[in-house]
Amino acid sequence: QLACPLDLGCHSVVESAPRQPRREPREPRQPREPRQPRREEELPVACTFAFDARFGPIIVGPRGATVRQLEQDSKTAISLDRDQSLISIRGATQEDVQKAQKLIEELLSRNVDRV
Predict the structure, then answer these.
(1) Comparing C-alpha atoms, which of 78, 75, 76 is closest to residue 49?
(2) In 3D, which of 27, 45, 53 has the Cα closest to residue 101?
(3) Of the residues 16, 89, 90, 115, which has the fewest C-beta atoms closer than 10 A?
């Protein structure tokens, strides 16, 4: 420690730490895997089916949490048209779309008594 530069004795100055040697350059990052298409127009396989409008809030869930979880689990984009009581599911493959449809049907059958 060095003494106060103003000789007031009120504080002390700590010597600066020695400089760290320069780091070696980083290796270039590996390219990322192509992302899953998420926007609806990028998803080639589509399915639309009717549902009872009373089930809309159950499918959407609190603040959209249920429909987001369904989308994540099935790797699809799900949209509801409450005016026409239609659900549109878009996915990269037919299997993803069928999985989403199955998950929605299971959700509705579990909650049929809540309507």
Answers:
(1) 78
(2) 45
(3) 16
